[in-house]
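Ticket closed. Logging final result for Lipoprotein.
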Amino acid sequence: MRYLVVCALFALSCGKTNSKPVYLGFSADSSGIVIKNIDRNGLYQLQRDTQALDSMALIDVVETPAADDSLTMEKTVTGRLHLRGDSLLFLPDTPFTRGKTYLVQTFVNSRFAAGGDVLRGKLQPRVKPVAVTLRR
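Final structure:
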């Protein structure tokens, strides 16, 4: 019984992290999108497999139409991912347009459930991405 309590306490203590939430934003010159605050495990996986960054589908960028524009469709922005130190940089194939709004989603640092969530019964039916709307 004592071992069961120790295991439960260990799982609960490992469930929460003190890491910052993922940051999604334009780079300093607005030529790309930066993903910062990647946790250590995720960063290690990315560093291990830098050749396959583009095939991992880690980030989705969609150009959204303006609120008063009913004729324009959403357009997926294609580009390449580059690992820069402890962050990822998404560089689009065509430059971002000034005045346009972009919806950015990533699954970096997303988890299905932490150890404590499993024990508390707080499982989510799916992994939720981090989403941010950016205006150039």
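Helices lie at 2-15, 40-48, 115-120. No further action required.
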